[in-house]
Amino acid sequence: MQPNSLLDGRVVVVTGASRGIGRAIALASAQSGANVVVHYLGDEATTAEADELLGEITAAGKSGVKVPGDISNPETAVKIVQAAVEAYGRIDALVSNAGICPFHSFLDMPHELWKRVQAVNLDGAFYVVQAVANQMKAQTPQGGSIIAISSISALVGGGMQSHYTPTKAGVLSLMQSCAIALGPYGIRCNSLLPGTIETDINKEDLSDKKKREYMEGRIPLGRLGKPVDLAGPAVFLASNLSQYVSGSALLVDGGMYVSLQ
User: Fold this and answer.
1) Residues in domain Ketoreductase (predicted)?
2) Is the pTM higher than 0.90?
């Protein structure tokens, strides 16, 4: 993504920022002029990734702070807000991106796996959105932009995703309700719905050549998505270019959804 000044001087929080879509959005935010709060899980792998990302943010001429923690723990959301306010005094945009999708068949799905996916994808989104929204309401000037990464899976089913698709539908619904609840405070809430994006989540699934070719064949633009394909839409929703956009759901899927109709 080419550098621009759409987010000049703003503070953007990105959850699950160490890799994939979150990383692309965090870096694009810095390249667009924002200081970035980088949330990541905090294990050895994501810590190394977050350190590398902070180096890239610095190279883009902006600053960043790191906040590790399991997003399904409400205390992580509190720590994210505290870190942002201590470093920068406010939060202008939140990208609630952290999520998991361990593919599994339905009939033999362990209940603990069901609970874990709900806890990370939906509970985690609620906790961080609520914590950041309270900060946006309290700060001066009041307001901000909240962007949740939902999925095309909020609109269509998936045989190996019966634990995942309900959470993404929930995230979409959460943003619609929050747009109403938080609008009076100048807080805009929108969702991005990625299609098939090549990330660690689906790396193994897409390693099957026939499966990959099948997926590509369903997309009018003729290719799978890349994490950077979400960066521009996220920056747009965080910027003043979308100052009258709230309660919206933007598909970023290369045309896949309409081709399935």
Assistant:
1) 10-188
2) yes
Residues identified as active-site: 151, 164, 168
CA atoms within 13 A on the CB side of 210: 0
What domains are there in the chain, each with its CATH number?
11-199+227-254 (3.40.50.720)
Burial 223-244 (b: 16+ CB within 10 A, else e): ebbebebbbbbbbbbbbeebee
- Greatest extent of the chain over all pairs of C-alpha atoms, in Å: 54
Distances in Å between the Cα of 220 and the Cα atoms of 57, 155, 156, 196, 255 are: 34, 18, 17, 12, 6
Which amino acid, 199? T
Instruction: Please name every residue paired with 41 in a beta bridge, in sequence order, or none if there are none.
Output: none
Asked if residue 57 lies in contact with residue 33, where contact means CB atoms within 8 angstroms, the answer is: no
What six digits make up the tokens of 32? 């667009």
